[in-house]
């Protein structure tokens, strides 16, 4: 299964002795970007969370769900649920988790 | 509300004062002392939830903040438990050895420095495998990672715990080159060539001048690693190999005796892992789909599961990396060697630079789906590790397998294990699958694990890594000359950190002031 749209053969830029990744802003407010950074490793297409949810819920991908309430997302992440371990505040701050939860809660079913 | 567990000598008033000092150092938004925080930093797979209780957590973002926290901890004699991302589930996760310790959560420290020409990175502890993968991918993936089977953790943390992966760079701790470390007196040290100010060779030569100290800070509590150099594998021109399945438990011995010489010779530069059927099946299915009988799985159930998924009793994936012409020549030798063992199946794999890449551990692609095995029993699952080191001997591995499998049956547990090659050794990794919703099973886990440790010790085998519950026990098995190495470790610990501020009890190492904790 192809997961990532990997583009190989793209020539790397001329060797720079040191490239320094800029520090991420303390609280990026982009819910999709934060979901990708904090959650997608498990809740992406081939992640553990998606694999286990697929056994009981459709769609299993959280970004495709239209029934998630923000409060539910926050509680599930902070306390853990099922086989999902709790996510501490050092890993995802309250502000970051609120943005992620709002992003997931605003996913709407496509218009029929 | 659960009662707070304090470390020795601390009380509520001192804790309140320490928290105010921590808040002044890192901001109130980065100190976490609520009950929910304590639960979220506890051991997610704990066999006994009463053990290893954190008091709270502090999350710095800079080295200077770490130094400030260490000074405060020293002032209040408050032990810190540093974690990188705290994802080594199965070994304790983010939970501390000593209850009442404050977790020093470094997951906000995510700086990456890349030397593209030399293929090295200098990483902060919060950089996860996915972070580093994305960082390299955005630059065209000139280098490949080596990732552990469950890759949501920290690159630094995994190498510091001697985690392993599946490429030729799979012995992660051996790819460390240079560190920056905060000691218990809050002083800052750089190892190797980093000890030379402005050296351009910190990540290029491991040893510096005089004693080389990197491994002193691995699986230890002698300092807090704040930066770590790591070598990356250049993207190969070609990858070739095969996935091979074997039908009988007895096939393990000949397989090891065939692969061992090829690994030592260097024809095989990757470190393959021979896994049993459940290692794969527990990801794909649940126990309840096959049986409702307690105790270890019967042979007929095992046969049914294997038939459904076309699995051998053992399976191994072999991969060759490098120039295509060299790989083709080596592949022919590997194929001949494997075919001579009459495997159940042999499926070849070939990749050339420019082709779509297989997202697996063999290509250094981070993964989390193997953790689906936590759902094997259907409840709140998890696993706990038991991982002795063996010689690369088929006879010894078979003896280890038979003896250990009999113990699994005796304790009513399902056998999940692998034999992972190093250059000269095997690690017999057992990830014992547990169900926290089965109280009767949970009572069996601890005596089972202690029996396994004792059985291996009786053969002269010791573990390479262990869960918090067994750190004292495993340390005690390293007993040459009256536990001389352990005494040396504790002499160093007492000299560097007499109050036990940094991770007291990690790897069974306690300063003299906390020596009474060694037997607890």
Please give a handful of descriptors for the protein shown.
heterodimer, A: 112 residues, Cytochrome Bc1 Complex, Chain D, domain 2, 5 helices, globular, B: 520 residues, alpha+beta, eight-stranded antiparallel sheet, 13 helices
Summarize the structure in words.
The complex is a heterodimer of chains A (112) and B (520). Chain A has 112 residues and is mainly alpha-helical. Chain A has five helices and one strand, in the order E-H-H-H-H-H. Chain B contains 13 helices and 19 strands. In chain B, the strands form four sheets. Chain B has an eight-stranded antiparallel sheet. In chain B, strands 5-6-10-8-9 form a five-stranded antiparallel sheet. Chain B has a four-stranded mixed sheet with strand order 1-2-4-3. In chain B, a hairpin with a 3-residue loop joins strand 17 and strand 18. In chain B, helix 1 packs antiparallel against helix 3, helix 6 crosses helix 10 and helix 10 runs antiparallel to helix 11. Chain B starts with 11 loop residues before the first helix and ends in a 24-residue tail after the last helix. The chains are: A mainly alpha (112), B alpha+beta (520). The interface between A and B is large, with 45 and 61 residues.
